Amino acid sequence: MCSSDLAHSGRIQEHTMLFKLSFGLLACGAASEWVVKERDVPEYNAQTSMWLKQESPSTEQPVTLTVALRLDEARRNELERIFWEVSDPDHVNYGKYRSVEEITEVLAVPQDQIDIVSEYFAQAGATSAVVAAARDTIRVTMPAGAAEVALNTKLHRFSHSEHTRVNIVRASRQYALPEHVAEHVAMVGELLQFPRLPLKHLSNLTASSSGWSNACDSSSCNNLVTPAVLAERYKIPTSTSNAAGNSMAVTEFQGQYYKDSDLSLFSKSCKRDVTVAVNVGDNQESAGVESELDIEFIKGVAPEIPLTVVYNAQYSLLSWANQITNLENSPLVHSVSYGNDEVQQSSTQYMTTCNTAFMKAGTRGLSILFASGDQGVCGRSGCGSFQHSVFHPDFPGASPYITTVGGTDFAGTGIGDETAWKSGGGGFSNTFDRPAYQKQAVAAYLADTSANFPPQKLWSSTGRGYPDIAALGGQKNSYCVATGGRFAGVAGTSASCPVAAGIFAKINGVRLAAGKPALGFLNPFIYKNPQAFFDVTSGTNSDSKSYGFTAVKGWDAATGFGTPNYQALAKAAMAAVEETVVV
């Protein structure tokens, strides 16, 4: 009996049970009963992707997927309304964050919707189906063969062209669900999304000379950026006390863990207490320079604040965002150095679902900062011929619901003014409109005749502009990182992001000590306080191409408002009271 006969019979249990029995069942052809999800995802392209398609996984290999349930539009709009109110320093509800239980009530996902989707995957062979606390996603684990049948797709292993030890399982074509299930599902994560991993050419760097002395004991840190350099430039005070309840975290994926011996080496040499207070996720024996960069420099900036490392072997923004939102005592600030292009294996529905997860985090009072990317305006996909292509903005860098951190270099040889890093990600979203909090700043930028804009056909002048802020990250001033038992120079916005996150974690400490709530989603505060940043007014993020965005006075699409001034930020944060009446 073909799937079309089964679908019309109404015998749902028999229908789904048969999926387990015959991989060839779908060949009968029943296109009218299947609904393709994430239709706008482009086909995998070996010419532009850094991921190489390999053999299929064994049919018994377990795969874990995040099934995002379709939300009632009115319920999602209500969540967004609350999100903006608690994030706006000028609103009476600023800082009045909500619990997981309250967010669950707002979303109000019906039980029968959860049951239909859970039962479908259970009957299709899932060994586990865990409903998230907010009841809007289901984390499903099942054998690869059963997943292929249940989702009408084909899975393959993919290896990374530079990080050869990293392997992931992804679908090599679009996926679909039976109509009676598809109507309840927004999308299924971990099928079509490929992570951006750090570029090899940004590691093992050296510097010829600098205008500062080495504050670390190791001579390998000569001329490199150390915590002392950051403290001087960004006016960061040395502090040994932390406000009660203050916390921060870095997120790592794909085998990027750390070794205590490397953290101890950095602590001893650079005189900073670099320790991890809490680990969430699987402990790994291996270490990665990406993870150790994040840990050493968020703690190098804010050594007094307890650090959590959130680790997941599989890359999934959706799973991670739900994970941190559901933690009972989730860290208040999260630094994430992963992402990819909007167009590269990210559907509009996937990005919208991630945005909902980001809103949930912000509504809980969490600050999320993402690196803007390390390949200028062209992203991982590349621009190719400018006559036939467009810029490729980053996601989630171009999401309106997170804070994005770009990269800079010192303009001269000493610690002082900065210039835009040529490879720092920045530009305008091709998917999301400009949010209200940045309309005035971006309008001023677009009206600046000194900005020397690229040809309009290459970018969207109405999209969300990013980055919001920046920090040192370029190859001219690479960071001194202890990794693999030695020190090495490392660059990229993967360095900029944890530095900015550590500074905002310290600002949270100032507010908490004064009895005020944490800052939560940062952007409304940032765009109301441009004076709290060192403006960057030179450089272009062209990444050696013909075009890019130029840093000018005020906000720009290369460095945002510029780099953090801790003293000015602390003053502005204390002035942002939580009980201001709406005008």
What does it look like?
- With 583 residues, the protein is of the alpha/beta class.
- Strands 10, 11, 12, 13, 15, 17, 18 and 21 form an eight-stranded mixed beta sheet that branches. A four-stranded antiparallel beta sheet has the order 4-5-3-9, with helices on both faces.
- The longest helix has 21 residues, at 493-513.
- The protein is globular and about 65 Å long.
- The termini are far apart.
Average residue-wise pLDDT: 88
Described by strand count, sense and barrel closure, the largest sheet is: 8 strands, mixed
Give the end-to-end Cα distance, rounded to a whole number of Å. Answer: 66 Å
The number of E-state strands comes to: 25
Which blocks of ≥5 consecutive residues have pLDDT under 50? Answer: 1-32, 578-583
What is the strand content? 15-25%
User: What does the overall shape look like?
Assistant: globular
- How big is the Rg? 24 Å
Number of helices: 16
Helix content: 25-40%
Structural class: alpha/beta
Short description:
The protein has 583 residues and is an alpha/beta fold. Helices cover 29% and strands 19% of the residues.
Question: Which descriptors apply to this entry?
Answer:
583 residues; alpha/beta; 25 strands; disordered C terminus
Give me the secondary-structure topology.
Elements: H1 3-9, H2 12-21, E1 34-36, E2 51-53, E3 62-69, H3 73-87, H4 100-107, H5 111-123, E4 128-131, E5 137-143, H6 144-151, E6 155-160, E7 167-171, E8 176-178, H7 179-182, E9 185-189, H8 227-233, E10 248-253, H9 260-270, E11 278-280, H10 289-301, E12 307-312, H11 317-326, E13 333-336, E14 340-341, H12 348-363, E15 367-371, E16 394-395, E17 403-410, E18 418-420, E19 427-433, H13 439-446, E20 463-466, E21 469-472, E22 479-483, E23 486-490, H14 493-513, H15 523-528, E24 533-534, E25 563-564, H16 566-575
Parallel strand pairs: 10-12, 10-13, 11-12, 13-15, 15-17, 17-21
Antiparallel strand pairs: 1-8, 2-6, 3-5, 3-9, 4-5, 6-7, 14-16, 17-18, 19-20, 22-23, 24-25
